[in-house]
Amino acid sequence: MSIRTTRKFVKFSNTFSLAGIGRVLPAGVYEVVTDEELIEGLSFPVYRRVATVILAPTQSSQRSIEMLSIDPHDLATAMERDRWPVASVSAKLA
């Protein structure tokens, strides 16, 4: 199987949490790495996501980094919450 890896950087202006990670992560820029494998036997290239991880500071030290497995949908939700904090949403509803 052929694997391709893509990397992107996401920025959080506020602290945030993701499902499956039992702690709140600090605001900052995070690298997100996604691995996809080629589905063979088709007449055109198709890739299936096999892993998505975020590189985050460890709980014990801001200098050490750990790779945490995440769901890309949870990441998208957290990024949306970061763009529209609860206080802003409440103000728009008033």
Shape: elongated
What oligomeric arrangement do these chains adopt?
Answer: single chain
Q: Rg to the nearest angstrom?
A: 16 Å
End-to-end CA span: 54 Å
Question: Biggest β-sheet, characterized?
Answer: 4 strands, antiparallel
Q: How many helical elements?
A: 2
Mean pLDDT: 89
Helical coverage, percent range: 10-25%
Strand order of the largest sheet: 1-2-3-4
> What is the string of SSEs from the N terminus onward?
EEEEHH
Structural class: alpha+beta
How much of the residues is beta strand, in percent?
35-45%
Indicate the low-confidence ranges by residue numbers. Answer: none
Please count the beta strands (DSSP E, at least 2 residues each).
Answer: 4
What does this protein structure show overall?
With 94 residues, the protein is of the alpha+beta class. The protein is built from two helices and four strands. The protein has helices at residues 72-83, 86-93, and strands at residues 3-12, 28-38, 47-57, 65-69. It has a four-stranded antiparallel beta sheet, covered by helices on one side. A hairpin with an 8-residue loop joins β2 (28-38) and β3. It is elongated. The termini are far apart. The relative contact order is 0.22. The mean pLDDT is 89.
